[in-house]
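Reopening: Acetate--CoA ligase still failing for me.
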Amino acid sequence: MANGRRKDEWEEPPTGFVAEANITERDADAFPEAGWPACWEAAADLLEWDRPYDDVLDDDGTTCWFPGGRLNAASNCVDRHVAADRGDETAIIWEGKLEETRTYTYRELYAEVNAFAAALRDLGVGEDDVVTIYLPMVPELPIAMLACARIGAPHSVVFAGFSADALATRMSGADSEYLVTCDGYYRRGTALDLKHMADNACLSVEQSIERVIVNRLHDDIPAGDHHAFDDLVADHAGTEIAPVERDVDDLLFLIYTSGTTGEPTLVRHTTGGYLAHVAWTSHAVFDLMPDDVLWCSADVGWITGHSYTVYGPLSIGATTVLYEGTPDHPEKDRLWEVIDRNDVNVFYTAPTSIRAFMKWGSEYPDRHDLSSLRLLGSVGEPIDETTWQWYREHVGGGECPVVDTWWQTETGGVVLSTLPGVDSMQPGAVGRSLPGVEAAVVDGLGKPVDSGLPGELVLTRPWPGMAKSLCEQTDWGGRRTRTADGDWQYETGDKAVRDGDGYLHLRGRADDVFNVSGHRLSSTEIESAIVGVEGVAEAAVVGRSDTVKGMAVHAFVSPESNVAGDDALRDQIERAVESAIGAIAVPHTVTFAPSLPKTRSGKVVRRYLEAIANGEDLGDTSALRNPEIVGELESLLEQ
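Support: Ran it again with your exact input. Result attached.
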């Protein structure tokens, strides 16, 4: 509903949760009275500063958060917890693909990070040298990130599912001469040779690359022009490297956008603003406390994993879960087994993944004790009401608050969400902007639209986690602009509707529209109507060229287990779309599929579906979690 659900249908957080929440209604009321800088002062107070900052924000042409301040991200994520006598508390729990587990206390993490930081220095890595990290979900990944941060070397993590060409492009783009990778890793029980990919990538770049290899598949790594990670750490065991003081505006890392809606873009994040932002949102949105266990299911190769697997939880001093496997291997209850065994308190995943859980059936979470969970989160795309309710009922036991978060690689961390100890939950609505953040829904001229009307989502005030490129654009070009009145504005590229209660309902990308017979149709609205049909687990719609209409709607639909993808279900889908939107939006073609192509973090990659629907070349599919599905879908259309 454009105007949202009636308030008597909203969900309230449990009384017990509210009483113990990090941010209470009293805190939320105090922020507006104190002014928006107070929010970010509270964020900065969660960190340990080597030199105090002079002000919250300097926006004199170039935005700088906490100017004058100096700090080190690794020290904030590791050292200070050891110094506070929390060295024996668990920092990382690793769940490996082959039923392996490893646990690192903060003291053990401190030793590993120091040893590898010393090794990097001996290899010639200096302050501001970019280190590329091409690793799967193994403990050496966050260790390498933190070691880089310790010595002031920005890291560039490249998703292990990317091809050699993609890795080479990213190393060249970052002008990186150092690569940390591994001999291989496991996908659904099959060993994949990552070192071969890395070697090919190194041959494709102009600069000479110093390589460090992590043992994952074998005990020994063949001799060659590289160094073994384990040997380097052993050789430098016991070495302590003083953390390099970094200016707040110094780079912490480089990362590329996922490219699911267009060409990947290099995004750079700085040390002070980013770290304060992810620490505060971990504290306020995820209600994370030092004795909590958080599992963010996203791969660390994406920004979600950077912010809420590594830097956010570790800056708070909590325990973070690192999972190498896939949700359905070896069995479809694998995730719930991990939550049960490790007493996970906060679980953060994508709606696409939740719809897959729904498809498999509630019997899988029902097999396990999930009572340790006290908060659930959603990220990556809009979540429909049906999926939201299933998530809360069958994973959260009907008691956990659900935070539906919105943010981007460029924002660094969450900027839109409810506060779980303060706000009522409206299933299907992301909520309001967080304290200290301002959002608006505007028309094509940048003017705010009335509640209930769709428009483009813009952020109208800077925030600490913003990418460095947004801070630097003094000409107000690109997606950071000045309105006609001279106000600051960031064009997110997403569509939204604000209801009468001020809650925002995301409607997908502004460019995710179809022009059918002159009518612009939202892919998200059509998909929401389809997944509301009983028996449908997930759906994605794309545009297909049509000689009459110009573009026709093609729906790829994955039914739930034991539900047939037949004419009866197709009829129900068509009626649901016609009822929700109109006859013009009814899909011209419905293809029933066992699954949809997804990234490792669970996002549906619609550009592959569009290529399949239009009979176009798919290009490189190696970044997909399930690359085999594209062949199956092509075969279905050929029948």
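The domain at 512-638 is CATH 3.30.300.30 (GMP Synthetase; Chain A, domain 3). If you still see a failure, please send the error message rather than a screenshot.
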